[in-house]
């Protein structure tokens, strides 16, 4: 039960409950460089002395990372016992504490889990949805259906499925051995879903810079909304060269480890668009800083996975663009994210709306 507290009653960290689950996926997420067969998630409940609980989850990409991330979150939680639940102050404290290790990798994932749980607890204590607490207004957000890689013929099935479900936009993975198959997959979507379906294409870092330039010049004639991560994610100079060569907008950002990475990317001119991942960018605190950078640079900003919390953060982002619908946590949530008429709206529950389906959590405990 959520407890609304007055502004004069600060929350205090009591402890953290940390659990690891490995959730089956209805459809594996395949890319040109590998496949995600399950959703390894670490679930975090920040328990306060006042009885308010803030919840979050992080996505570990591979089951081998579950235990290390869970241990890291628990260890970080011990550093915060008896501290005020003040998310920005907590973020500043932990940033200083982990400066020698840096904000990337498993450390970054664990820090974001704590940050998101602290913000959720703060919003729940206030008794309002996160979007309202952050000064925004709840509204429907444009959403695209996001898929893994399949063979060219299978792309048509994904397009048909998306159109039938009311989506107005979708993203496919490309990066086939021959660029002709990239083009064929794009055209197959058009053939099935029609020209009104907004289409994005994601290379998942699979190309060299020269090959990326060659391919984007061919794909430029296919009228797609963006080409995502054509080369290695941290190669900002390479992405800048591709962006200079392409007429189609280049999208990166899901692999920015914190706002500092984003600032470097912007300085290099690495992309025309921005797509932070709320976990990798540093949780809610990192997202707020990223939104300011995107506004200053004039970059339309979309989200990467985490639809539950992204639906609260995009409305308060000045350059709000698209919300990605790729639902990893739905099977363990009481109320999974719902897509209605091609849009997603923030949960109206206090906080970000995450509530565990405990029977499902128990079933998938790792």
Question: Any key phrases for this structure?
Answer:
TIM Barrel; eight-stranded mixed β-sheet; 366 residues; 38% helix; single chain; Enolase-like, domain 1; alpha/beta
SSE topology sketch:
Elements: E1 13-31, E2 34-48, E3 53-59, H1 66-80, H2 87-97, H3 105-126, H4 130-133, E4 141-146, H5 152-164, E5 169-173, H6 179-193, E6 198-202, H7 209-219, E7 226-228, H8 236-245, E8 250-252, H9 259-268, E9 273-274, H10 283-297, H11 307-313, E10 323-325, E11 343-344, H12 358-364
Parallel strand pairs: 4-5, 4-10, 5-6, 6-7, 7-8, 8-9
Antiparallel strand pairs: 1-2, 2-3, 4-11
Helix pairs in contact: 1-3, 2-3, 3-10, 5-6, 7-8, 9-10
CATH superfamily of the largest domain: Enolase-like C-terminal domain
Largest sheet: 8 strands, mixed
Shape: globular
Helix content: 25-40%
> What is the H/E order?
EEEHHHHEHEHEHEHEHEHHEEH
Beta-strand portion reads 15-25%
Number of strands: 11
Q: What's the multimeric state?
A: single chain
CATH classification, class level of the largest domain: Alpha Beta
- Terminal CA distance: 27 Å
SS content category: alpha/beta
CATH architecture of the largest domain: Alpha-Beta Barrel
CATH T-level topology of the largest domain:
TIM Barrel
Number of helices: 12
What would the average pLDDT be, to the nearest integer?
96
Low-confidence regions? none
Number of spatially distinct domains: 2
Radius of gyration over all CA atoms, rounded: 20 Å
């Amino acid at each position: 039960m959520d407890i609304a507290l007055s502004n004069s009653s600060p929350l205090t960290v009591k402890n953290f409950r940390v659990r690891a689950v490995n959730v089956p996926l209805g459809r594996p997420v395949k890319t040109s460089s590998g496949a995600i067969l399950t959703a390894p998630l670490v679930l975090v409940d920040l328990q306060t002395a006042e009885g308010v609980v803030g919840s979050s989850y992080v996505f570990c990409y591979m089951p081998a990372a579950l235990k290390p991330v869970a241990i890291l979150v628990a260890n970080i939680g011990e550093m915060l016992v008896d501290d005020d639940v003040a998310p920005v102050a907590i973020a500043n404290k932990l940033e200083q504490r982990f400066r020698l290790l840096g904000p990337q990798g498993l450390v970054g994932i664990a820090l974001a889990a704590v940050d998101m749980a602290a913000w959720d607890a703060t919003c729940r204590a206030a008794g309002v949805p996160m979007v309202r607490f952050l000064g925004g207004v709840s509204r429907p957000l444009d959403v695209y259906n996001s898929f893994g890689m399949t063979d060219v013929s299978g792309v048509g099935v994904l397009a048909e499925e998306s159109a039938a479900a009311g989506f107005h936009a979708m993203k496919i993975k490309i990066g086939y051995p021959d660029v002709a198959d990239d083009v064929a997959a794009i055209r197959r979507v058009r053939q099935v879903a029609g020209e009104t379906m907004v289409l994005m294409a994601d290379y998942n870092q699979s190309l060299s810079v020269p090959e990326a330039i060659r391919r984007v010049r061919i794909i430029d004639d296919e009228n797609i909304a963006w080409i995502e991560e054509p080369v290695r994610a941290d190669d900002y100079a390479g992405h800048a060269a591709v962006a200079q060569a392409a007429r189609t907008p280049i999208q990166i950002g899901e692999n920015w480890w914190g706002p500092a990475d984003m600032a470097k990317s912007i300085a290099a001119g690495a992309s025309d668009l921005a797509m932070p991942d709320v976990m990798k960018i540093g949780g809610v605190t990192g997202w707020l800083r990223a939104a300011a950078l995107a506004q200053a640079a004039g970059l339309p900003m979309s989200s990467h996975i985490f639809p539950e919390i992204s639906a609260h953060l995009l409305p308060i982002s000045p350059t709000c663009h698209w919300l990605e619908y790729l639902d990893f946590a739905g099977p363990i949530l009481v109320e999974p994210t719902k897509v209605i008429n091609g849009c997603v709206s923030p949960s109206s529950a206090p906080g970000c709306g995450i509530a565990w389906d405990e029977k499902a959590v128990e079933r998938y405990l790792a």
